[in-house]
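hey all, quick one before standup. I had two proteins in the batch that finished overnight and I want to keep them in one place so we stop losing track of which output belongs to which input. First protein below, input sequence then structure tokens straight from the run.
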Amino acid sequence: MIVKNRLLNFDAVIYQDDDWFKFSLDSLLLVNFVTINLRCKKIMDFACGNAPIPMLLSYKTKAKIFGVELQKCIYNLGVRSVKENSMDEQIVLLNADVREIGNYFSSDSFDIVVCNPPYFKVNGNGDYLSENKIKRIARHEINLNLDDILIGARYLLKNGGFFAMVHRSERLIEIITKMRSYNIEPKKIQFVYAKASKNSEIVLIEGVKNGKSGIKVLPGLVVSNDDGSYTLEVKKMFGK
């Protein structure tokens, strides 16, 4: 069922479908992690879903923001949200395949590429895959994998442009290795913890196209207090 929710504490609404998925905190964390400077003119969000990241980015920058989403039904929700919030002059969404990004944009033309990607590999045993096709494609590397994302980012980014992604901590070594193989040098990492007593399951990572070696590891980000309430650091991200 399609529902209209408030976008956190921001002065905006977002359309979502309860039968598919709602945008997660991971998107908000990525928006607050990525480096955005005043020189930034164009930002791309791969696998943008129903557009939470482009919408949240619009509160942080005047840059033109693009989003690419393969699944038409999810894309339609994003278009509806962007239009209703009068963000359509700043945000442009495309119903397209990230692997074909070269058909839509010139190389070396973006300052930033971000992505909240499918987290899980498909290992041949489909028992754990969701029966819901929409969820299955969003969560597993069926139509889009890590290589596809990095190939697209390398193509779009200007020299010195930023690539930022949220992903599973267990895949960090693979992520770093692949980023470097595609000439995106990892420069900043932050581990995310559901609670201070838990191991990190999510990591934020940022790299620079053709950047110099040298990485900064930020203090860990704890999402929830022991009583389940959000920490002050996360609450500050939620808007006014």
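OK second protein, same deal, sequence then tokens:
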Amino acid sequence: MIIDKIRKAIETRNWTVTKANDSWSVFKIMSEFVNGYETLSRIGPCVAIFGSARIKDDNPYYLKAEETASKLVEKGFGVITGGGPGIMEAGNKGAHEAGGKSVGLNIVLPHEQHSNPYIDSDKSINFDYFYIRKTMFTRYAQGFIAFPGGFGTLDELSEAITLIQTHKISNFPIVMFGSQFWAPLVDWFRQTLLDNKMIKEEDFSLFHIVDDVDEAVNIIDEFYKKYELKPNF
């Protein structure tokens, strides 16, 4: 296949950033997009679970993420995560142990990130580019459940809300798990963004804040009882 030849040629190059190889990077970017599309177009309906890579397996949020993934599988969904440790591992573990599809979109980082062992072998993809990875999440997930996390979680959450707000993608449910963690952020949305007329009151309907696993899963499930369940493409 031509894309495999391009990918092999790219991998043999020295990718020190220079003006001379800027144009060649287009082919590397293209190969990541094609690999992602080819793999994820076959996964069926899945929900993305986000959250911190630093959360340990005895943390209550880890256990809730694992339980959430398991119950999503019971409702007929697979689970997509960032493929790493922490909340991502919990999501993949819950899906894997429940017998569901467990997808991991891993990112190459200088620290923290390594693939967890609960990803289906044919559904693990490595990315060099964050923006390509985020495209795969928004294109192939039927819902987002964001557990507590850092800048990466905020980035993924904000992008999804923005794309729905601006009608760049179809509406889908966004759930923020952990009111104690998320409430200060939502208060800032209301007291700063809303008060300064940078968002509208109706924008708060774009997401839900929950503390209960069943409530999180039911928000996803009830949404797709009203709409045909299909990939976002």
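Flagging for whoever picks this up: The radius of gyration is 18 Å. Strands lie at 46-50, 78-81, 102-107, 124-127, 144-146, 174-177, 208-210.
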